[in-house]
Each structure stands twice: as C-alpha cells, then as structure tokens.
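Problem: given the chain below (482 residues), write out its structure.
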Amino acid sequence: MTCHEAEDVPHEECGVFGVYAPGEVASKLTYYGMFALQHRGQESAGMAVSDGNRIMVFKDMGLVSQVFNEPTLNSLPGSLAIGHTRYSTTGASVWQNAQPLFRSIGGRGFAIAHNGNLTNTDDLEALLIARVGAQGEVPRKQSMDSTNDTALVAAMMASWDEGQGVEQIAMEVLPQLVGAFSLVFMSENSLYAARDPQGVRPLVLGRLERGWVVASETAALDIVGATFVREVEPGEFIAIDAGGLRSRFFAEARPKGCLFEYVYLARPDTRIAGRAVQPTRFQIGRRLAIESPADGDLVIPVPDSGTPAALGYARESGIPYAMGLVKNAYVGRTFIQPTQTIRQLGIRLKLNPLREVIEGQRLVVVDDSIVRGNTQRALIRMLREAGAAEVHVRISSPPVEWPCFYGIDFATRAELIAPGLTTDEIAKAIGADSLGYVSLDGLIDSVGLPADALCSACFDGRYPIRIPCSAAARLGVPQEAS
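Solution.
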C-alpha cells in the first residue's frame, strides 16, 4: 500500500437508488425513492435514466423536490434509472460533484452513483496510471470525497474495456476496491448493484410487480410500492436486465455493518440486517436509562433523531415524556447565507423551546450524539433562557472519539469534543448539570447483532477496513484488516 496524507475534512453520507421496471416510468419511481432517502444527503440530487437507446443524466444542487419537477421528469423517458442524494464534504458543495456520473464504455453509455468512501485511492490511481499511461485520464484524489472515488471507479471501469460487457468488467474492478461502497450503476439496458465485502453501508433489494429496485434503505422500497426481498450481501454483485436477476460474489463476505446507522443515520421506519430501526432506538433509550439514570421532572427529546431513545428512556425511568422543543421541519441545508443577526440566533433556526412545558422543570434531554459540542452548548443555553431549572443531557451513543473513513460526516479527531475529556468535563464544557452516554456494550446489546459483525470505529478507534496508513500512524489506531 502506498501511504498518503489523508485530508482532515468531513466525509459524506449519501443515498442511492436504482430501478429496472419495464412498462413503468422509472424517473418518477426514482424521484420518490430519492425523496425517501433525502435524509442521507441534502446538498445535491440527480438521476440517470435510460430509454433503452441512450442514457440521460439530470442533476443539480438542492433537495430532490427543488431539483426535479413534473416537466423535468416527463423529459426523462425510460424504464431503467439510478438516483443519488448527496451530502458533500466541506468546500465540495458544487454542481460538478453531484451524482450520478456518466462515462462511455466501449461506445456505450454508463452511469454510476456511490455511497461510502474508498480508502485505497492512491493504489487505485497508480493502477489506473499503469493501465492508461501518463497521458491518460486519471481523476486525481485530492480529498476524501466520494465523488472523486466514484470518478475513479468509473475511470477504472472504462480502462478495463477490452470488448467485455459491463458485468465482466465489474468483476475485474470491484475486487480492487478497498473501503466502504454501496454502488448502483447502469448501461442502456441493465441495472447493476454492488456492496463492499464488509457491508458497511446498507443496500437492499426489492421486487416490483414488473421489475426490481435496489436502494440504500427499505423505506425507499416502501414509498415506491416494492416488496422487500433481501439485503444485497456484502461482497455481492447483482445484474438485472431482460434476462432477470443474476447474482455473483466478487469477494468473501466479512460483515462489519455501521453501528451509527442504528443510532442516527437511517430513517426510523427502515430495517437493517433484519433489525427495525425505531424499536432498536427505543431499546437503546431504555438501556441508557438503566446505565445513566437522572433525577428529572420531564424527559424531552432533541427532535427528530432523539425521539425514539427519549421514549425508551421515559418508559424505563418512569419520568414523564414531553415535547419540549418544536422543530422547524423546513430548515434543511440552505444556500442563502444568514445575516449576522440571524446567525447569532443559531439553533433557533431549527428548534424552539416550549416555555410553558419546560419552565421550572428539571429536564432530561435525550439526543443521539455529541460531535463538537457546539449544538448542545447552544441548546442548553436556550433551554435555560426559557426557564429550565436543570438540564441533564443523555446521549444514545457512546462518546464519538475517532474520525470515520467509511462515509460519515464526522469531524477530525482534533475537532471532536470527547477525546481527552472526561464525561464531567464535557458536561461542564456544554453547560449541562450532568451528562451520560450509553456504553458501547449497551449499544451493541440493544442492536442485537454480534459485536464482530459491526463497525464501531468512531467509538473505539478499531478500524475494520484498512485506512490510509498516514492517518493510521497519526491517529495511533489499531486495524483489524490489512
């Protein structure tokens, strides 16, 4: 492996969707599937649609509902499509980085979309240079950015073209990739999907009356009326066309599903590895109440991500549950910079306290995680200004102490609040009367999967897939895989 300097930038979390449905309007099915995956990426949205003869790509910055409208969807005919919602890295929120990406392979169209991050991009660049020569087209890896990862995969697919079909090329390229990847890609007539051997990011397969769907989450299957069939297995490659569905494995499965999906990333109405997310989060809240009790008058969630765990905490503790914060459902990522006056309002853009509920009360505030601590600090200040007598913060995940190299937008370790501080010191830093986290063992027990089948690197620094060696040396972390 060639060592390289890993960029200290946040990583992205995205959503992918693909549909092969003869006789159906794939663009509209993809629109609704992407809409269900909007939580996985709010900065850009795009889809590629084939009518059997050519692939058309439409993408832009913004939410799915902002990028697409009825006339646009009507201009994208065909029964085969893939879609992507993207949450970008810092400084990379530009149109050029929106997906899907389009290339030509052997004179035929090819489009691809990706959720995750590759960690051996220097090796892949060197391999690609060896194949295409110094004058060939090689997407340079300047940051841990999945769009660059995706461009690199697409360039490798094109470089392998020696008269083979996409399916044969994929079986040559996929074993070369290291890291986290759930991929959907397509030619004019076929839909393809692949998942890394560890299955870090979710990917599921669904059945329509006249076709098939692949998606990041089961909630996207539900919204288009597809029946859940199964998960795409770690290390599996799927091809779907007029001949039906074909499956093969390009690598041995070594499951390491992302533990943070159960805490925050996935929609509460989805299922991952057979586990329904909503009751799992409820159970995490119950475990949190057992491990970290608090004397309070009310349990309130930080909506929406803290709500299931707060319900579980209230049930187990016997403390009444109440909605003490109102969320503005229409505040997502905005491209309009706020004025200084509005900026100073901070968290009030998204949350506002119900003074009548919280005034004079000892609050147990349940949230999913603490990363830098800025949000919690502002939230606690706001609750005190609204009259809260005490604020006890309870977190339904362990302290986030390590950066993620597999596709989550976490800060660098230097920016995280947890490393080097005790729980009491973090409580003081954010202004809480007390602070408690669920333990890692408690979280894993609540999820109900074996610890060795889960990736918990952001909590314990044990990276199950090789990361850039310069980053490993700098962080001083052990790695289970080489």
